[in-house]
Amino acid sequence: MSKTNHTPEPWKTKENFITSIDGLFISSLHGSGTLKSEDIANAKRIVECVNAMAGIESPQKLRETFEKVRYLKLDAYTEIKAERDNLQSWKNDAEFGHKLMMEAFKKQEEILSGLIQEYKEFIADCEVPPSITEFLSKAENLVKNNNSIKTEQA
Predict the structure, then answer these.
(1) How open is the CA angle 39-54-42, to the nearest 5 degrees?
(2) Which of 12, 16, 39, 149 is the most interior residue, by most CB within 10 Å?
(3) What was the pLDDT predicted at 34?
């Protein structure tokens, strides 16, 4: 680190005067037309800033680095948030798609159940081969089993 040309820190204030820790006069603030309380507050602020930057060769470079890091973090946060929002949107789409699919299954089952019932009523007064009765029974069981599977999944 290179040698600085200013009085070494820490600095202190007494009223509106700024001095080194050893009491060496550095500066005084006398604003034109300002209140003395404002001059004292300004002196304190200057000393706080100088002491906070003690040992830092270039406070401006530190500030620039801080800003770059802050924006890098902000960029990373923005990117992660956008990805999270994208994933949430996919999840919502998947849930909506699942809901539509379940509604379509329900509608198909209602149609199939209605058809099975119509066929059963139609063949009730007819003599039909056992294979048709078996087929309708299996179809009816399939609809019932699908309903129980979907109820378990929901």
Answers:
(1) 10
(2) 16
(3) 67
SS3 at position 48:
helix
CB of 62 within 8 A of CB of 56? yes
In angstroms, what CA-CA distances link 50 with 6, 11, 19, 56, 57?
Answer: 10, 7, 12, 10, 12
Query: Which secondary-structure segment (H or E) carries 96?
Result: helix 59-124
pLDDT 10s digits, 123-141:
877 777 888 888 888 888 8
Q: Which among 143, 103, 95, 150 has a CA at the least distance from the CA of 120?
A: 143
CB 21 within 8 A of CB 12: yes
Global pTM?
0.41
Residue 116: strand pairing partners = none
Q: What is the CB-side half-sphere exposure of residue 5 using CA atoms within 13 A?
A: 0
